[in-house]
């Protein structure tokens, strides 16, 4: 776990772990290259990062016991690193609830980490036939499908979520939502793309299509819980 490459650390959040006051560990590296990614500086797996060493993160979390409820490992893609599971185990031993943000690129590592996790947010990029185009990697759709099966079979709390990517349309994502509901997803969200990345650089904004809200009204009843996070009014 001392080899865990960290790209950033947020000591407090109320948004990234449901019903928890949490810290976020941003892991460096991701094998996928989504055009709308708001954490692009975290994509490279090697090289100098802006984040603290794991030992420093561990010390900060030790100091915050009793003040925080949980710790979320985000990215990048946390499962890209073999040091993820040992780090989760340490955090769990401190008494924290543990959360993971993942796109499902490494289903085997995801499955191996289940016993150290309390909650998972799984990115569902879009229709399976479009996955390779969205993430610029072959075989990505199959990896996501396997990871989805692992999450749904884990018994853990979870959320599946889709960001409105550049070529997304209400019709496309309505069909995709129907597929996810049919596969057993009960907790789902749509979220608008951010207009800037974590470095403040501009990104392509979500399309101003009035059909999104109508589509969300159609999709919502298919799930036990559904949110459409527009990022605005």
From TrEMBL:
Transmembrane segments: none annotated. InterPro entries: Aldolase_TIM (IPR013785), NrdG2 (IPR012840), Organic_radical-activating (IPR034457), rSAM (IPR007197), rSAM_sf (IPR058240). It comes from the Bacteria. One of its GO terms (molecular function) is metal ion binding. Keywords: 4Fe-4S, Iron, Iron-sulfur, Metal-binding, S-adenosyl-L-methionine. Gene3D superfamilies: Aldolase class I (3.20.20.70). Its cofactor is [4Fe-4S] cluster. Residues 24-164 form the Radical SAM core domain. PANTHER family: GLYCYL-RADICAL ENZYME ACTIVATING ENZYME YJJW-RELATED (PTHR30352:SF13), PYRUVATE FORMATE-LYASE-ACTIVATING ENZYME (PTHR30352). This is Anaerobic ribonucleoside-triphosphate reductase activating protein. It comes from Acidihalobacter aeolianus.
């Amino acid at each position: 776990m001392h080899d865990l490459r960290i790209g950033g650390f947020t000591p407090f959040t109320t948004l990234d772990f449901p019903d928890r006051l949490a810290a976020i560990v941003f892991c460096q590296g991701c094998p996928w290259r989504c055009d709308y990614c708001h954490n692009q500086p975290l994509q490279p797996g090697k090289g100098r990062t802006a984040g603290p060493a794991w030992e420093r993160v561990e010390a900060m979390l030790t100091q915050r016991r009793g003040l925080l409820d949980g710790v979320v490992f985000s990215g990048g893609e946390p499962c890209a690193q073999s040091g993820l599971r040992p780090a989760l185990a340490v955090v769990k031993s401190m008494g924290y609830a543990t959360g993971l943000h993942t796109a499902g690129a490494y289903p085997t590592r995801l499955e191996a980490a289940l016993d150290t996790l309390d909650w998972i947010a799984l990115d569902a990029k879009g229709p399976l036939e479009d996955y390779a185009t969205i993430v610029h990697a072959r075989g990505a759709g199959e990896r996501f499908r396997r990871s989805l099966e692992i999450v749904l079979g884990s018994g853990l709390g979870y959320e599946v979520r889709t960001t409105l990517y550049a070529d997304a349309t209400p019709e496309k994502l309505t069909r995709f939502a129907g597929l996810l509901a049919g596969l057993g997803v009960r907790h789902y969200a749509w979220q608008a793309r951010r207009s800037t990345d974590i470095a403040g650089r501009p990104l392509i904004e979500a399309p101003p299509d009035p059909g999104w809200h109508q589509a969300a009204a159609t999709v919502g009843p298919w799930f036990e819980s559904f949110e459409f996070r527009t990022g605005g009014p």
